[in-house]
Design brief:
The protein is mostly helical. The chain has 16 helices and no strands. The chain starts with a helix and ends with a helix.
Length: 382
C-alpha cells in the first residue's frame, strides 16, 4: 500500500515536471536562458523521481532487473544537481547581464563525483553481477547511504539559504530604481523557495525520527506530507507560468544602480542636484505616475542617473522606492483629509496618488503614519 502511494506521488511529480518543461521551452522571451536553466532543474528532479518509481513499482523493478539492470542508479547523481541548478536560476532572473560562466561548473562537482562513484561501484559490472547487487540491495552499506543522505540535505539547505540571500539583495536593489515593485519583486519565487525548504525539512525530520526512535508510522506520515508540500509548490510554479507567463520573461529594465560609476560629486553639486530634485517633486508631482523609475526621473531633471541615485542615498538617506512613496503617502493624506462631501474613495485615492495595489498602499501608508488609510480618515472626520 505504501509503495503504491509513493508511486502515485512520483508519477504526478514526473508528469508535472515534464509538462512544465514543455511549456517553458515554448515561451519566447529575452530570459530564454533562465527558462532553460529552470527546465534543467525540472528534468533533473523528474529523473530522481523516476528512480523512486524503479524502487517502489515492484513489477517494473523486476522487469528492469531482468532486461536492463544498468538503468538502476542512473538517478543517484541527480540528487546533487537540481538544487545548484535552482540557485543558478535565481541568479539568472535577478541579474540582467547574467550569462553562464565556466566557474559555475564547480557547482556540479558533487554531481560529477557521485556519477563517477556509481559508475565504478555499479555500472561497470556485468549484467549478471548487477542483478545480484540489485536483488541483495548491496550497492552501499547502511552508513554509506546515511552519509550520502546527510550530504544531500546539507547541500540543499546551503543552496536554499544562498538563494534567499540573492533574492533579498535583488529586492533591495530594485528599490533604488523603481517606485512600483510589486510586479518585479519575485515574491512568488521567495514563496516557492520557502515551500521547498519546508518539503526538505519534513524529509529530514522523517529521517531523524527513523534513526532515533524508529517510528515508521510517523516517518510515513511525514514522507506523505512532504510529498504533498512538494506537489503544491511545483503546481504553484506551473499555475504561475500558465496564468502569468510574463513572470518567466524577466525584467527588461536595468536592475542595478551600480556604484555611481566610481564618481564623487562635489558637495556644492550634490546640494544643487538635491534642491533641483525637491523643487521638481513639489511643483511637477512626477510621483503620481505609477510607472515612474529612476531613469525617467533623471531624464526629466537632466541629471545623470548614477548622480541622482547618489543624491538620494547620500544626501536624503533614502532609496528611490521609499523616496517616491513618501510623496505618494503625503499626497494621499492630503486627499483623505478633505472634507468635500463628494470626497473620493480610498481605492480612487490610491490609484490617483501613483499606487497600483491596495495591499501595497495599505502597507506603505501604515509605515509612514502608523495607521491604515481607513483609520486615518476616521480620525480626520472625528
Amino acid at each position: 500500500m505504501l509503495h503504491d502511494i509513493k508511486n502515485i506521488f512520483h508519477l504526478i511529480i514526473i508528469f508535472q515536471c515534464l509538462f512544465f518543461s514543455f511549456f517553458l521551452l515554448t515561451q519566447k522571451n529575452e530570459k530564454r536562458l533562465s527558462n532553460i536553466i529552470l527546465v534543467t532543474f525540472l528534468l533533473s528532479k523528474a529523473i530522481t523521481e523516476i528512480g523512486g518509481v524503479f524502487a517502489h513499482f515492484e513489477e517494473l523493478r523486476n522487469f528492469i532487473i531482468s532486461h536492463a539492470p544498468h538503468l538502476f542508479y542512473i538517478d543517484f547523481p541527480f540528487c546533487y544537481v537540481y538544487v545548484p541548478v535552482l540557485f543558478l536560476y535565481v541568479l539568472s532572473i535577478t541579474k540582467r547581464d547574467f550569462h553562464f560562466k565556466k566557474v559555475y561548473l564547480l557547482h556540479f562537482t558533487p554531481f560529477l563525483l557521485f556519477g563517477v562513484l556509481t559508475m565504478l561501484r555499479f555500472h561497470i559490472n556485468s549484467a549478471d553481477t548487477l542483478r545480484e547487487i540489485l536483488r541483495d540491495d548491496s550497492l552501499l552499506i547502511f552508513f554509506e547511504w546515511l552519509g550520502f543522505d546527510l550530504l544531500e540535505f546539507t547541500q540543499f539547505f546551503i543552496y536554499a539559504v544562498a538563494s534567499l540571500i540573492v533574492l533579498k539583495k535583488y529586492r533591495m536593489e530594485i528599490k533604488n530604481v523603481y517606485s512600483t515593485i510589486e510586479h518585479i519583486n519575485l515574491a512568488w519565487l521567495n514563496f516557492v523557495l520557502f515551500g521547498f525548504i519546508g518539503w526538505k525539512s519534513l524529509r529530514f525530520l522523517a529521517l531523524v525520527l527513523w534513526l532515533t526512535i524508529g517510528d515508521s508510522d510517523i516517518g510515513i506520515f511525514l514522507y506523505i506530507t512532504a510529498e504533498v508540500v512538494f506537489l503544491i509548490f511545483v503546481s504553484l510554479m506551473l499555475l504561475k507560468g500558465v496564468k502569468q507567463p510574463a513572470i518567466f520573461a524577466g525584467n527588461k529594465e536595468n536592475q542595478s544602480r551600480g556604484k555611481y560609476e566610481k564618481t564623487s560629486l562635489a558637495d556644492a553639486v550634490k546640494e544643487d542636484y538635491k534642491n533641483k530634485l525637491l523643487l521638481y517633486m513639489e511643483t511637477q508631482k512626477p510621483y503620481l505616475d505609477p510607472t515612474l523609475c529612476l531613469n525617467n526621473l533623471a531624464e526629466k531633471l537632466a541629471i545623470p542617473t548614477h548622480h541622482l541615485s547618489q543624491v538620494l542615498n547620500i544626501c536624503l538617506n533614502q532609496n528611490f522606492f521609499d523616496f517616491i512613496n513618501s510623496y505618494r503617502i503625503k499626497e494621499s493624506r492630503r486627499l483623505l483629509s478633505e472634507q468635500d462631501p463628494r470626497k473620493k474613495t480610498i481605492i480612487e485615492i490610491l490609484y490617483q496618488t501613483g499606487f497600483n495595489s491596495k495591499s501595497v498602499f495599505n502597507v506603505a501608508f501604515k509605515k509612514y503614519t502608523g495607521m491604515t488609510p481607513s483609520q486615518f480618515r476616521k480620525l480626520q472626520n472625528s
